[in-house]
Amino acid sequence: MPELALKPAFNPSTPNPYLPQVATVLEVIQETHNIRSFRVRLDDEQAWASFSFEPGQLGQLSLFGVGEATFVINSPPTCKAYLQFSVMRAGEVTTALHGLQAGDKIGLRAPLGNSFPYNDLKGKNVIFIGGGIGMAPMRTLLLYMLDNRRDYGDISLLYGARTPQDLSFAYDRADWLGREDMRTVLTIDAPAEGWEHKVGLIPNVLTEMAPSPENAVAVTCGPPIMIKFTLQALGKLGFKPEQILTTLEKRMKCGIGICGRCNIGEKYVCIDGPVFTYAQLQTMVNEL
Amino acid sequence: MATQEELKKIILDVLPDVDCVIGWGPGPEPLCASPYFMRNPEDVDYLLAGPASVHNPALFLPEYKGRKTGVVVKGCDSRSVVQLISENLIRREDVVIIGFPCAGVVDASKIAAKLGPYGEPGETERAIFDKDALNLSLGGKELSIPLSEILADKCSRCKHPGAVISDYFAGEAADALQVKDDFTDLAGLESLPLEERFRFWEKEMSRCIRCYACRNACPLCVCRDHCVASSREPHWLAQANGVRDNLMFQVIHATHLAGRCTGCGECQRACPVHIPVLLLKRSLGRAVEQLFGHHAGLDPESRPPLLTFQMEETNIKEREW
Amino acid sequence: MEASSKFIARTALAGWLGELSARFRVWAPRREGRAVLYRPFDPQAPEDNLPELDKKPTESAKHIIFPRSEPLINFRRKRDPEHPGQFLLDLRVPEAPGPSLIFGLPPCDARGFMVFDPVYNGSGTDGQARDIYYLRRRAAALLIVRSCSRTLSTCFCNWVGGAPDSAEGADILASEAEDGFLLEPVSSEGAAALDSGLLVPADENRLKAAQAARDEAKKTLKPAPDISGAGKALLERFEDAAFWKGEAAHCLSCGICTFLCPTCYCFNVTDETAGANGVRLRSWDACMTPLFTLEASGHNPRQDKAARLKNRIGHKFSYYPELHEARFACVGCGRCIKSCPSGVDIRRIVTDSVGLTQSPKPKAAPRNIPGGKE
To answer: Residue C206's domain spans which residues?
Structure first.
């Protein structure tokens, strides 16, 4: 009898990938007028003790009755006290998330997706270029590298936003600006009173900074228009597509490569990404 | 098919001045035509304006808003164009309306019923319409079905087989027909007690797969990308596929069309599981006709009565309620 | 193992399905007006709901394994007795449904599940998430496939590796043979289901009759064009906006093609609440709708219907085969063509993309089309 049925077996002990773990909001930080960060911890002690992730991976935050939304875990794996997510208020779920207070229960499915190639970056000079909320997904890698500072070469950060009030992570920025072992440049789009840093669009400031592509990798994230011109600027500075990393955002539901909406051609941002090199993006269909 | 040749001539004349002319062309099956977008003179060769031209090309006009577009219309289609103009959903100056004397279009359900003993419509190898009959070959047999037996119900109550308004007309324009719409299609259902009517809809809606073809095939359902059916804000409908939410959507759909629906029947024709959704629209349409004396899609200057209000309505005696 | 093939008379069918109902929830195609839908077989009134086996079901059988909507999690918010003002979450996963049996699905529907399988089973890779809701239904479902005794002009299973009598994905293959059906076991579970006193061993004449009917059905399919280059051709056409605009011009952007399709597996997840209780619901979704990819920022990578149609075709004939052993995510059932209110023909888009045809020029000569001159 030819066994043509070949249907997949079902093992009842298979974990349910849609079932979130219950977590508690420990702290809510107002970053800007429309960005809040949430520090959360799993309720189950055993699950929390064994929880691990890599910088760049995603988490799905769930508010039961509203839905789920995907964010990069932006605290570093070296932080064992909480997981941090930064949420810009935009749609239904993010607006509801902004209503959370310390002590509230949420659902969490994490970690999902791939991560920054933090091992391959060892010994390299790394320049971070972040625009607006795009700083959040890079923060995990930057903090991880600072916690393992000796493994990496020069670290530079160019972080820009429209106005000084649109810059997040004030508690990090003071440290970043004061550190001797990294170079930090902040920029805003137009002059503002009391602003002591750069004024200008990120790609222009980047050109001025002129980081060397020698043994370097650029990590960038931000709004599509900023990415477009930043890629051009990096190209002019001599960065090859393989030397540029970015992390993508797409509408997601399942987060596990099944529901079918975050694909770019045959790649799924939720499992093949969110981190891609520019070289990889160039081989994919043009549908960002 | 003299009309068809005249239509082609008109379209060739119009073509240089428009983005495209929307009409009908051959479809994937012998019994099925398809909306057809003519851009080049050679495309016009394949125009089909006849009993298989069931689709309402007015559906596509809002997509082309702001670009001059030609549209070939049956009488019923022209009413949709008029309604779109009257609601400012398209601009009169953007459309070139090309009419012809429509002799009615077929109803695929009726063809299927006629073929019953011989096979499925999908087995038809060849189909040719002549003046009075559909001649087809199926399973090695040649069949001839009188057109009068397979025309859509809407054609039997059609008062305007030629276009209500047009810039060009192929053939002889005729006066409106003296046909009375006595809503016989609603009579059977309405003779039932309310309970049974509800059971009828429960049964029908149990087939609904929530594909929203009824909505997307409707030339007047123009907010389809922002429809309450899938909106979360407001969250009026659950995504659960149950009779309650399925029916709720149809009721919202029909209510939004009261006084706007011209009865083209595309919602019902599009339904893959054959739910008679036109009945809901016909019922509400009749109510608007009776209350406001309004017939949708006849006058580009008129406004749908439910999009306006008067302090004192003639036929609604609120104090007497 | 033809010796174990059985025969069932049409007249005994209801009785056998009734017998099977003791072990399975039995589904079979049933006619409702003009539509033929898979409905649960009622063993209490077997003669009243005899399967419709002469017409191809309007819908595919996928909803039996992958329901149009199903609860993933039932949730309840309870007040925390220790911290008044705060809530605790109670999350429950619905119990697995019992085993089901689908009787009389065409081969294309069974092959459709084989397109679902790798995606919902973590591509068979360790560490990849597996969809337990799909897998537990799928593993417990028995498929009795009915080989087609005739084909429709919209059928094109032979383009995509299928056949009117394909046993791929079936547990039992049923073929029309005179006054009943030849039942051939394909899997061991299928063989077990054939252990019934209502079935008789298949004799030589019926085996021959079944084979003849199958051969006859195959002959009614037109020869398949070579579309092996479709994957590459579609990628090359990706930025050809005029091509896609032309192919999508008459598309209504509705969900018929997706929802009737045996292989379209995309879904949405929404929370539906009633008071403090609610359900996280998985429901069918369609890449043809603009909301599918609309991001919170307002950005939409597939803003217009041409981009969405391109994704649907691309997924079936390029992206999916790239990921899953060159299998097309299309089984050629033709429902998307048959039920499209606007006459969109997926075959045409594929042959246009590989350059075998060129829309809008009709394939057929004008005399073969409705309204055309003899």
So the answer is: 2-66+97-219
CATH 3.40.50.80 matches A125-247 = yes
Question: Is residue C261, in this structure, part of any structural domain at all?
Answer: yes
For helices B243-257 and B278-292, the axis angle rounded to 10 degrees is 40
Q: Mind telling me how many Å the CA of B320 is from chain C's nearest CA? A: 38
Residues C16 and C158 in one domain: yes
- The bridge status of strand A183-188 relative to strand A155-161 is parallel
Domain assignments of chain B as residue spans, ordered by start: 1-105+157-179, 108-150, 181-315
Q: Does A261 touch chain B (CB under 8 A)?
A: no
ipTM score of complex? 0.93
What is the spatial distance between Cα A68 and Cα C180, in angstroms, rounded to a whole number?
Answer: 52
Based on the fold, state whether residues C324 and C356 are members of the same structural domain: yes
Q: How far apart are CA C79 and CA C91, in angstroms?
A: 14
**C183 and C107 within one domain:** yes
Nearest 5°: phi and psi at B78? -65, -30
Whole-prediction pTM: 0.93
Which residue in A has a C-alpha nearest to residue C316's C-alpha? Answer: A266
Strands C172-177 and C141-146: parallel
CB distance from A251 to chain B under 8 Å? Answer: no
Candidates B271, B263, B255, B310; CA nearest to B83 is B263
Chains touching chain B at 3 or more Cβ pairs under 8 angstroms? Answer: A, C
Give dist(CA B305, CA C7) in Å, integer: 65
Domain termination residue (choose one: C219, C249, C267): C219
* C287 lies in the same domain as C188: no
Same domain for C181 and C293, yes or no, is no
Q: Is B62 on the interface with C (CB under 8 A)?
A: no
In angstroms, the CA A1 to CA C96 distance is 30
Q: Considering only residues 15 to 34 of chain B, which have any Cβ-Cβ distance to chain C shorter than 8 Å?
A: 25-34
The answer to whether the CB of A39 falls within 8 A of the CB of A27 is yes
Q: Would you kindly state where each structural domain of chain A is located, as residue ranges?
A: 21-112, 125-247
Q: B108-150 domain in CATH 3.10.450?
A: yes
Q: For chain B, positions 208-267, list CB contacts with chain C under 8 A.
A: 209-213, 215-217, 224-225, 230, 232, 238-242, 266
In chain C, how many domains are there? 2
Instruction: Kindly identify which residue of chain A lies nearest to residue B232, measuring between CA atoms.
Output: A92
d(CA B59, nearest CA chain A) in Å: 28
For residues A85 and A79, give the distance between their C-alpha atoms in angstroms, rounded to a whole number: 13
Question: What dotted CATH number matches A21-112?
Answer: 2.40.30.10
Whether residue C341 sits in one domain with residue C278: yes
Cα–Cα–Cα angle for B256, B258, B259, rounded to 5 degrees = 125
Residues C182, C255 within the same domain: no
Is the residue at C90 inside a domain? no
**Is the CB of residue C266 less than 8 Å away from at least one CB of chain A?**
yes
Contact C131 A258 (CB under 8 A): yes
Of C219, C242, C257, which residue constitutes the final position of a domain? C219
> Is the CB of residue C341 less than 8 Å away from at least one CB of chain B?
yes
Per-residue pLDDT of chain B (321 residues; tens, 9 = 90+): 578 899 999 999 999 999 999 999 999 888 889 999 999 999 999 999 999 999 999 999 999 988 999 999 999 999 999 999 999 999 999 999 999 999 999 999 999 999 877 788 888 888 999 889 999 998 888 999 999 999 999 999 999 999 999 999 998 887 888 888 889 999 999 999 999 999 999 999 999 999 999 999 999 998 877 888 888 878 888 888 899 999 999 999 999 999 999 999 999 999 999 999 999 999 999 999 999 999 999 999 998 888 888 877 777 777 765
Q: Please indicate whether, in this complex, the C-beta atoms of B37 and C360 are within 8 angstroms of each other.
A: yes
Angle at C84 between CA C82 and CA C89, to 5 degrees: 75
Q: Do A257 and C89 touch (CB under 8 A)?
A: no
